[in-house]
Backbone:
């Protein structure tokens, strides 16, 4: 699993990348009450705002971590946004991307580096 | 993820209010207890206050509605007004020059909601006024308390002694289990009705109790000597049904109850009529009443009572799950047209299971059932004007 400074995690599954937010981010956000997911098939560029998360505290965005195409979104989050608080790094993935260049992930942090980053 | 892109949330929730660093902030007598209970502390109205405990905002909210919640509201101002003449009615008459409220008609042992108005007919603060026999007891907002006390001193000093109470904490115990818990510690508390006030002896010194609150629940606000406050709070928390509740859930609880937050939903520019708080202006202070007018801004507020206003505070239920937060601009139409108003408070209501907002709209759009649109992230989303409270209140009248 790879991590961004924006508190996203990325996991490579075959030829797609699964993206979610970290447990640390979910804890900081507090109870998530609304998730607005992108359309499947959307082409995105790195740093595009593609997901809106509303918690009891505030609205936050997920930015596209790399260039690519959204191939699947986790509809379960629309009905049950609280899943983000229950299982941020498991069941509560947000979207799957087909990534133009998988080597773009090489620059991201591994788990140890991310733990240092949030320490 | 861009965490905490502030979207017009209540400052209490993001902790970004004020210019003070934490080190310059005041603490209530319960600060150490909050920290011990695992609270996340944030700056609020010049104090370091608990925004949430480990339970989290959502569960704290639901717990308060299901059992009982304990709130530290010691940052609020407690003030005693006592007539220098020794005639209690003189203090009531004097206070009536600052509020559009029937204070003289308030019976001993009773409390009512009031507003300090200004010369322009706006609201300087909202407060509770209690008649305690030989004096009046006021509870005012934390952020306004210095200004309120200066205002009282400037206008009422000739007639009243004005005493700020600084040696007492203020706790709120709210929720369906509050009555049984408090009555166990302070026998007689259960006999009080909504908006009753009483001074009662207890193992924690003399308590000043009112049956009221800011959640829409039955419950109490209890003033206790600072020296006894922690012991009293611990005695309440010793009951399994009582959980500590932070400012985050306090905000969603009061919003579900349709109650205004001073500074958000009412301020120096909103009149009580625009704010739909006309119920707080009793008949005796209205045109034709025995003590008509005689408060700041009466020349604006009294005509508004009969003529209406161009804008009104309303409740809104957005469709879907996306909250419309404070600052959201409101429109009559899905596309085009000028704005008709703005949201002043908005959040997700845990007990109603959806988003809720309050705000001001042009009066022609204020009828419950009207569909209007709030612009959220560039999209106009529908919301229905809704009577408040969003959730029926459960006061013990």
Residues:
């Amino acid at each position: 699993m790879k991590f961004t400074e924006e508190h996203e995690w990325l996991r490579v599954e075959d030829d797609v990348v699964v993206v979610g937010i970290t447990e640390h981010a979910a804890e900081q956000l507090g109870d998530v009450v609304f998730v607005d997911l992108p359309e499947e098939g959307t082409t995105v560029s790195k740093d595009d705002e593609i997901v809106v998360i509303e918690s009891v505290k505030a609205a936050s965005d997920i930015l596209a971590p790399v260039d690519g195409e959204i191939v699947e979104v986790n509809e379960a989050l629309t009905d049950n946004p609280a899943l983000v608080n229950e299982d941020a790094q498991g069941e509560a993935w947000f979207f799957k991307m087909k990534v133009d260049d998988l080597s773009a992930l090489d620059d991201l942090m591994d788990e140890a580096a991310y733990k240092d980053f949030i320490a | 993820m861009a965490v905490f892109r502030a979207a017009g949330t209540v400052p209490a929730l993001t902790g970004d209010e004020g210019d003070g660093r934490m080190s310059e902030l005041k603490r209530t007598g319960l600060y150490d207890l909050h920290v011990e209970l695992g609270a996340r502390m944030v700056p609020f109205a010049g104090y370091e206050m608990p925004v949430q405990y480990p339970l989290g905002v959502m569960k704290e909210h639901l717990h308060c509605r299901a059992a009982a919640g304990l709130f530290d509201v010691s940052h609020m101002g407690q003030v005693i007004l006592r007539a220098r003449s020794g005639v209690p009615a003189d203090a009531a008459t004097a206070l009536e020059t600052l509020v559009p409220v029937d204070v003289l008609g308030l019976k001993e042992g009773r409390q009512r909601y009031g507003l300090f108005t200004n010369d322009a007919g706006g609201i300087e603060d909202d407060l509770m006024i209690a008649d305690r026999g030989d004096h009046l007891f006021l509870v005012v907002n934390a952020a306004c308390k210095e200004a309120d006390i200066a205002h009282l001193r400037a206008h009422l000093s000739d007639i009243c002694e004005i005493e700020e109470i600084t040696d007492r904490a203020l706790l709120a115990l709210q929720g369906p289990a509050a009555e049984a818990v408090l009555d166990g510690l302070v026998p007689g508390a259960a006999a009080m009705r909504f908006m009753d006030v009483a001074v009662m002896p207890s193992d924690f010194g003399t308590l000043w109790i009112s049956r009221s609150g800011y959640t829409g629940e039955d419950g109490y606000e209890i003033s206790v000597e600072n020296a006894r406050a922690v012991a009293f709070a611990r005695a309440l928390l010793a009951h399994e049904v009582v959980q500590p509740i932070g400012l985050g859930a306090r905000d969603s609880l009061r919003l579900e109850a349709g109650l205004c937050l001073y500074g958000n939903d009412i301020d120096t520019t909103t009149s009580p009529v625009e704010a739909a708080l006309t119920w707080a202006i009793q008949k005796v202070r209205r045109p034709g009443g025995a003590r008509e007018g005689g408060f700041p801004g009466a020349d604006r507020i009294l005509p508004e009572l009969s003529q209406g206003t161009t804008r009104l505070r309303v409740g809104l239920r957005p469709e879907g799950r996306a909250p419309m937060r404070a600052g959201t601009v409101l429109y009559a139409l899905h596309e085009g047209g000028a704005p008709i108003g703005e949201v002043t408070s908005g959040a997700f209501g845990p007990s109603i299971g959806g988003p809720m907002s309050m705000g001001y709209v042009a009066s022609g759009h204020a009828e419950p059932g009207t569909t209007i649109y709030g612009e959220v992230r560039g999209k106009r989303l529908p919301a229905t004007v809704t009577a408040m409270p969003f959730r029926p209140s459960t006061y013990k009248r």
Q: What stands out?
A: Chain A has four helices and nine strands. The CA atoms of residues 86 and 92 of chain A lie 8 Å apart. Strands of chain A lie at 2-3, 8-13, 16-21, 32-36, 43-44, 49-55, 59-63, 68-73, 95-99.
